[in-house]
Amino acid sequence: GQAWVMWCIDRIDGVRQRIVCICRPETGTSDEDACDIRLYPFNQYWFDEARIDELDILAGTRAFVPIEADGTITVRRLAEGQIRIYQIRENGQDGLGGWV
Fold first, then answer.
1. DSSP letters of 23-57?
2. How far apart are CA 16 and CA 83, in angstroms?
3. What is the value of pTM for the model shown?
4. Number of C-alpha atoms within 13 angstroms, CB side, residue 6?
């Protein structure tokens, strides 16, 4: 299997938001060994109606990420050293709510 690392930053001030970062560490493995990752990003944090966006900090864009029926998302293949950032928020909440 492929090695990857995930960490989360949760808001605890009454606004339901979570930032999820996932990284493929530089381990010297071939990019050909990379595969898509099915990820459950809701561990120990609850949402009524979640919306997930992938954030591209360099481009200044966000893209909607569909949530599967089992609550997982698919993270596309990561190159070594690559990081992806996802924002989870209640559907209807705008932007990063002060996290910009």
1. E----S--GGG---EEE-TTTT---SSEEEEEEET
2. 23
3. 0.84
4. 14
